[in-house]
């Protein structure tokens, strides 16, 4: 007898689903039996990802800029109209934004980062939560935070502030939605060679993996988007039925000791200049 799929019969919405962690999650969730709506602002890429996922009809793409609450609400309404309900909300969309230090930070640049991460996450929790409560669904809402929300030295100021805010939103939402049977958690990954991060730091995927591996505590393994998608799958599934208000850190123990991804990046660029 074949094992039951871990998301069999569930409906999931994934923001930022056209590439990186979001794409990996879309492919994994559908492989585990879910119907998925992916959203993004990269329309050609998002439509291509959706069309490439089998079986036909299990994945739908919709344009959604998470800074606009109305677009988030529309994406969730599409999921309900297409598949009947929402069981899983994976709020994954994000940007790196300004690389400025706190002394150089332009507040307009800070606001741009907060708009995507904080406004986008708040809108996702709000409207997914409403849909789940209205349907009586014992749903799971998962937000992407970061090791930058756990320990300093992993990101610029604006990004770190945004990720700390996401942790705060998750904690409050877990408390408020718990009485309705809805779980809310975060996944906080270490640095990895996503298209977003590679563009931000100006590295090829190969060099980005080298830098992340150098900074990591756990050796012999390289963190990839599929690992983060697997963590999200656990929180989306019934295997985590009594886990809420938790930040699942996927970092190979890196935040348990004193280390710095920023230092590893600086070392990499210093070696490149010497060569």
From TrEMBL:
<dbReference type="InterPro" id="IPR036291">
    <property type="entry name" value="NAD(P)-bd_dom_sf"/>
</dbReference>
<dbReference type="InterPro" id="IPR002347">
    <property type="entry name" value="SDR_fam"/>
</dbReference>
<protein>
    <recommendedName>
        <fullName>Noroxomaritidine/norcraugsodine reductase</fullName>
    </recommendedName>
</protein>
<comment type="function">
    <text>In the Amaryllidaceae alkaloids biosynthesic pathway, catalyzes the conversion of noroxomaritidine to oxomaritidine, a precursor of haemanthamine- and crinamine-type alkaloids, promising anticancer agents. Can also, to some extent, catalyze the condensation of 3,4-dihydroxybenzaldehyde (3,4-DHBA) and tyramine to produce norbelladine, and of isovanillin and tyramine to produce 4'-O-methylnorbelladine.</text>
</comment>
<comment type="similarity">
    <text>Belongs to the short-chain dehydrogenases/reductases (SDR) family. SDR65C subfamily.</text>
</comment>
<dbReference type="Pfam" id="PF13561">
    <property type="entry name" value="adh_short_C2"/>
</dbReference>
């Amino acid at each position: 007898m074949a094992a039951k799929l871990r998301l069999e019969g569930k409906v999931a919405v994934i923001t930022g689903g056209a590439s990186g962690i979001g794409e990996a999650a879309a492919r994994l969730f559908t492989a585990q039996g879910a119907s998925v709506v992916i959203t993004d602002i990269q329309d050609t890429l998002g439509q291509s990802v959706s069309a490439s996922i089998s079986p036909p009809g299990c994945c739908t793409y919709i344009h959604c800029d998470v800074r606009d609450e109305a677009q988030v609400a529309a994406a969730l309404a599409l999921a309900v109209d297409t598949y009947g309900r929402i069981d899983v909300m994976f709020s994954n969309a994000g940007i790196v934004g300004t690389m400025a230090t706190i002394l150089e930070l332009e507040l307009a640049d800070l606001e741009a980062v907060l708009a995507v991460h904080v406004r986008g996450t708040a809108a996702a929790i709000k409207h997914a939560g409403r849909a789940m409560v209205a349907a009586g669904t014992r749903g799971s809402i998962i937000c992407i935070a970061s090791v930058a929300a756990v320990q300093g030295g992993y990101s610029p100021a604006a990004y770190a502030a945004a990720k700390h805010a996401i942790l705060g939103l998750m904690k409050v939402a877990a408390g408020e939605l718990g009485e309705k049977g809805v779980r809310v958690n975060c996944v906080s990954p270490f640095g990895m060679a996503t298209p977003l991060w590679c563009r931000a730091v100006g590295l090829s995927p190969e060099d980005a993996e080298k830098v992340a591996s150098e900074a990591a505590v756990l050796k012999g393994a390289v963190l990839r988007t599929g690992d983060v998608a697997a963590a999200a799958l656990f929180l989306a599934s019934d295997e985590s039925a009594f886990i809420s208000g938790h930040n699942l850190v996927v970092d190979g123990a890196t935040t348990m000791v004193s280390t710095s991804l920023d230092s590893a990046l600086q070392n990499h660029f210093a070696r490149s200049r010497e060569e």
